[in-house]
TrEMBL record:
GO biological process: sporulation resulting in formation of a cellular spore
Native source organism of the sequence: Pelotomaculum propionicicum
Annotated Gene Ontology cellular component terms: outer membrane-bounded periplasmic space
Residues covered by the Sporulation stage II protein D amidase enhancer LytB N-terminal domain: 10-118
Protein name as catalogued: Amidase enhancer
Superkingdom of the source species: Bacteria
Amino acid sequence: MTIVRVFVHNENKIKTMQLEDYLVGVVAAEMPAEFPLDALKAQAVAARTYIVKRMGSGGAAVANPLHPGADVCDDPRHGQAWLSREDLKNRWGTLRYYDYYYKVKKAVDETKGQVLVYQGEYIDPAYHASCGGRTENSEDVWKYKVPYLRSVPCPYDADPNPVQTASFSLEQVDLALGTKLSAVPVSGTENNAKTFKVIEKTSTGRPKLLLIGDRQFSAVTVRDLLGLRSTSFTWKAEGDFVYFTTTGYGHGVGLCQYGAKGLAEHGYDYRTILGHYYSGAEITDTRN
């Protein structure tokens, strides 16, 4: 029986639980319970792969130094989100709680022990909310080319709100990025527009490297510092403001959660869904 030690930030303590119980809290936190069962199963296998790989790499021995003694924490910025049963009751309400909880538990139970491997090694099961129609190659977002994290079409991305716009004053951009855009004369709207330039694009056409003012930034850095929903963005400069329009939500690599929802709604099972997003990866059972 595998035990997972989870550091829970809002309680400032480590909770100990069985791996499969931990996964119910992860899947419920990471994917809406309203999604089809096969989408939830795909999420369960990805989440199980993450924690099994981490535990096999040393667990608490390689965990975040901010919470020593824990294998993982509940902060998605450090890995995977996790919610307790009490958290889920508060999120879903008492009436929906039992239906949703046992639906998620069914997804975990019916994939028990299943993980993703590539050439016999556990994969890094990257996932995100919405890719906007096509996922990204790993090297276009991070440093390394990973053979199973390839760009693939995502024809059924079911995100109900894929396109959103966020506005920033030039002063806000300067503060976040350390640029000096607000020093450009207000009368020079055209000049303001010229301070943003795409130097390099990814294979899917997203910005990869940008020139902002006299400084270069990766699109990932711009997204992080400005809090944009994704790196699939365009912009428009008007006077002292810049309007960023994003498509999708997340880094765009690996499993697209809304894409998995769409595939499941079109009759594809979780094995097919996982095979689509993790090129060449295979499902194996850790119990064998």
